[in-house]
Amino acid sequence: MVLWALIVVIVVNGVRAPIERLSQGDQPTGAPPVPTGSGFPEADAAAFASQFALAYLNYDATKPDDRAERLKPFLPVGAESQFGWDGAGKMAAGNFQLSGIEVVDRQNAVVTVFAQSGAQRWRLSVPVYYSDGRFVVSGQPGLMPAGGPANLPQLPTTDHDITAENELRPQLENFFKAYAAGDPTQLQRYVIQGVTLDGFDGKVTLVELKSVTAPPGGATRDISAVVKWTFPVNPAPSPAASDDQSADTGGLEQAYRLTVEKQGGNWYVKDIRGGTRTVE
C-alpha cells in the first residue's frame, strides 16, 4: 500500500508540473510593458522643421534683416540672429517635403526635410526640442545632397504589330478628340458597349497623336499611346489676347495605356489609364 501511494504521488506531481508551467507562461514576468509610442509629436515637428527650413534656406545679402525676422519664431532665446549665415550671397529654396524623423526621446528629435534650390535637391536635418506644446531648433542644421536621378537601364527591344498600329491610329485620333471634348455621345462611338469614360469636358485640346505602340496579340490587347494636349493658361482669355495663341496655351505630351478590343474590323477602347515607363 505504501508503494502504491508513492507511485500515485509521483504521477500526480509529474502531470501537475507542466500544467503549472504552461499556465504561468501567460502571466507577466515582472517587467512593465514597453509603450508602443515615443510620445513625441512627429507630425507637428515635421511641420515646424519645414517652416524653419523655408526661413533658413532663403537669404539675400541686400535684405539680411528679413531673414533674421523670419528665424525668430524658431530659435532659442539668445541665439545668433542669422544662425550661421555670414550675411553674403543669395539663396532661394522651396518645395519642402518631409524625409524622415529620428526620435531621440520624448522631447528631442532630428527632422530631415527635402528642399530644392534651382536644379539642386537637398536634405536638411534639423534638431528640434519639444516642451509644453512648443518647439525650438536645438542646434545647427546639417545640409546634405539629396542625390541625383537614378540610373535608368535601357528598355528591352519589343515586337510591334505594324498592321494593328496603322489600324488603331485613325480610331485613336478620333477617340482622343472625343476624350478631350468630353461629349458622352461622341465617346460612345469609340468605346466598348457598356463602358463609360469621363472626358476632359473641353479643358484640353488634342494637338497630335504622337505615337501608337501595339504588341502582337489577339482581338484584345494592351497598347500604349502618346498624345500632345494644349492647356489654356487662361480659361477665359480676353479678346485682345485671343489672336496670340502662344500667349494663352501651352502644349504637353502625355503617355497612356489603353486596353482595346477589335470588333467587326474596328478597334474600340475598353479602358484608359496613365502610361508606364517610356523614357529610353
Automatic annotation (TrEMBL):
CDD domains: TcpC_C, TcpC_N. Gene3D superfamilies: 3.10.450.540. Signal peptide: none annotated. It holds the Pfam family TpcC. This is Conjugal transfer protein.
